[in-house]
Specification:
The chain is built from 10 helices and 9 strands. The protein has helices at 42-49, 79-82, 88-93, 97-100, 108-120, 136-150, 166-182, 194-200, 217-222, 224-239; strands at residues 4-13, 16-26, 31-35, 57-62, 71-74, 154-158, 186-190, 203-207, 211-216. The strands form 2 sheets. It has a 6-stranded mixed β-sheet with strand order 5-6-7-3-8-9, with helices on both faces. The longest helix has 17 residues, at 166-182. The radius of gyration is 18 Å and the shape is globular. The relative contact order is 0.18.
């Protein structure tokens, strides 16, 4: 049974179509990388998967008891987020808000979960530090811990390594891989890094206002869409 499934799904805003005819299904424990040029509809699909927008046509279906508010989400980081004046543990605990219900305060269990996720990210010693004092890589680890507090079965990551140096990038990719394999967490990652997609993902979804490809990494490598996009990525890597 699919954990997440799109059936002939079309998304847009105010009746204007942005992304059409999306068909894919993702099972538990798989690692999907969503690729495509800027403006291809990747952010729109994310909003659709989070149930922040309603499809114009078709459906987004969840299986295995999954609910949209149980998807851990790591958005692209903005300058406002980078300068957020809160302690590290406060940022991480905010990921528990959806599980609080009508409670106006965090429970002991919420705090335990937050510290557990922070420790998993190797950031336990920083819990009392001010978030804005951390490096970019450390901030992303904190935000990943926050997303894990909300995640039951799925972690959705939007350009998680954007702006990070090569060392921090490699470390974050390794952490995401560990979460996928050790926690059996389904990963959906939006990325411009085709090399990372080829190394870590099990499946590729290639968008360009519609679905150019969905399938396994091996199938993508041998497809026309894959060959063309990988070739462009290699050129950018060599000369960019």
């Amino acid at each position: 049974m699919a954990l997440i499934e799109c059936n002939n799904t079309t998304f847009g805003y105010s009746g204007e179509i942005v992304l059409r005819d999306i068909n894919f299904e993702l099972k538990g424990g798989e690692y999907l990388c969503i690729v495509g040029e800027n403006g291809a509809g990747k952010s729109t699909l994310i909003k659709g998967l989070l149930k922040l927008i309603t499809p114009i046509e078709g459906k987004v279906l969840f299986g295995d008891g999954l609910d949209a508010n149980e998807i851990g989400y790591l958005p692209q980081q903005t300058m406002i987020q980078k300068n957020f004046p809160a302690s590290v543990i406060e940022v991480v605990m905010s990921g528990c808000i959806n599980r609080m219900g009508l409670r106006p305060w965090y429970s002991k269990n919420d705090k335990r979960i937050a510290r557990e996720k922070l420790s998993l990210m190797g950031m336990a010693e920083y819990e009392k530090r001010c978030y804005q004092e951390l490096s970019g890589g450390q901030q992303q680890r904190v935000l990943l811990a926050r997303a894990l507090c909300a995640a039951k079965k799925v972690l959705l990551l939007d350009e998680p390594v954007s702006g990070l140096d090569p060392v921090a990038t490699a470390e974050l990719y390794d952490l995401i891989k560990t979460i996928n394999e050790k926690m059996d967490m389904t990963i959906i990652m939006v990325s411009h890094d085709i090399h990372a997609a080829m190394e870590y993902a099990t499946h590729i979804l290639h968008l360009s206002h519609t679905q150019l490809f969905f399938g396994s990494k091996g199938e993508y490598i041998s497809s026309k869409a894959g060959k063309d996009f990988i070739s462009v990525g290699e050129s950018s890597h060599l000369y960019g």
